[in-house]
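S2.1 Query sequence (High-affinity zinc uptake system protein ZnuA)
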Amino acid sequence: MKRLFLTLLLAGAALPATAASVLTTIKPIGFIAAAMTRDISTPEVLLPAGASPHDFSLRPSDLRRIDAADLVIWVGPELEGFMAKPLAGKQNVLTLLTLPGLPVHHYAEGEGHDHDEHEGHHHEHGNVDPHIWLGPNLALPIAQAIVWRLSELDPANKARYQANLVRFEQALASKDEQVAKQMKPVQQKGYFVFHDAYGYWERHYGMQAKGHFTVNPERRPGAKTLVTIRKALEQHQAQCVFAEPQFRPDVIDSVARNTGAKVLLLDEAGGTIDVGPDAYLEWMESMAQAFSACR
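Output structure tokens follow.
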């Protein structure tokens, strides 16, 4: 009996400590968090597949998940405005847009605005581009911030979080180098994207979009914008038009029809990828393959 008790005691001592529970608002941030919690825990994602942070409405069950999480990670009110009130006063929150030194892009006056005057002259999220996960050079400082917070909340697993960070940094550098080579042939290719979300990726890999259909994916493109894009496609200034899985309005197909331009998909939200330790690298590869198809 004593031997059995000792065996059970030793087995219990070998079990990992209970890890901090992590909730991210969107999948791409969940991808980075999952790399940091590899072999420790799996982060949960608040928004379901296909949902947009631009117009999401919280349900009572979502509020319970927010309250139950040990750490909630979001981009900031510039992207997920619906989270501002539920997170007010909550202690264990990581707001990524406020990270010191994060190379966040601020739109210059007139940059990225719609062609149509009646559609407004400002992004819904002000002059800050909140699509920070689209910059591979921002993924590492985001991962570092996540590890720092998790190490505070869960010191028993601190060494494992830090080891995961080192592993991620090395894998990210390798994948970034690979993607950079994939992007070179399409750097000079003209294309239009559905909504103005890809600036971090484009600047990082030296790409130049010809424009976008809309600033806010919930807002229908205006007539002037559609005419401008149609003319550019007819004049072969752009070879491709990128739709998105969660936003594929018929207007994209109609504008591109009979112009010779390809209509392709960019999954900037990673909707088809499962959250896991290597998901961010998988997402980078999927983005690279999508852009590479524009030839």
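The radius of gyration is 21 Å. The chain has two domains: 16-179, 185-292.
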